[in-house]
Amino acid sequence: MPTFVMFDEAMLNIGKGLIDLDSNVFKAMLSNVAPAQAVDDEKADITEIAAGNGYTAGGVTLTCTWVETGAGTGVWRFDSDDPSWTASGGAIATHQYLVVFDETSTGDKLLGYVDRGASATIPDGTTRTWTVAGGLFEITVP
């Protein structure tokens, strides 16, 4: 999977307790408009693709974990399952970005995004899976 880019405000929101990596519900949605890492803070700041043909507005719910990679390592990893969409009845709209947000937080705070490198559709009858290998991000305690 390409690099997960954290939104600038995400770490502040984690520190303030607005984003709870351990217990909140996180979702992934698709966009074809580049997120603004420095200023976007809430889901409403993102232009989501149109719902239809297998894509539901608001994206898909992720199964996430926030765990230390090994006892006493001081390395904490936020990981998720691999989000996927299957087109049915037509192609899923053109998109380039997968955006992860905290659905539980007030305003649906943004966490980060992945740029697939080019815009594409998901053709009717096919599935696109965004592989999350090695977690979305890690924090190392010095």
Describe the protein's architecture and organization.
The protein is mainly beta. It has one domain. It is 6% helix and 40% strand. The protein is built from 1 helix and 10 strands; from the N terminus they run E-H-E-E-E-E-E-E-E-E-E. The chain has one helix at residues 8-15, and strands spanning 4-6, 26-31, 60-62, 64-68, 75-80, 84-86, 92-102, 110-122, 127-129, 137-140. A 5-stranded antiparallel β-sheet has the order 1-8-7-2-3. A 3-stranded antiparallel β-sheet has the order 4-5-10, with no helix packed on it. A two-stranded antiparallel sheet has the order 6-9. Strand 7 (92-102) and strand 8 form a beta hairpin. The longest helix is centred in the first third of the chain and has 8 residues, at 8-15. The model has no long low-confidence stretch (mean pLDDT 95).
Sheet with the most strands: spatial strand order: 1-8-7-2-3
Termini separation (Å)? 27 Å
Rounded to the nearest angstrom, the radius of gyration is: 15 Å
Number of domains: 1
Helix content estimate:
under 10%
Main sheet characteristics: 5 strands, antiparallel
Low-confidence stretches: none
Order of helices and strands: EHEEEEEEEEE
Q: Class by helix and strand content?
A: mainly beta
Q: Count of DSSP helices?
A: 1
- The number of E-state strands comes to 10
Please write out the topology.
Elements lengths: L3 E3 L1 H8 L10 E6 L28 E3 L1 E5 L6 E6 L3 E3 L5 E11 L7 E13 L4 E3 L7 E4 L2
Quick recap:
With 142 residues, the protein is mainly β. The chain is 6% helix and 40% strand.
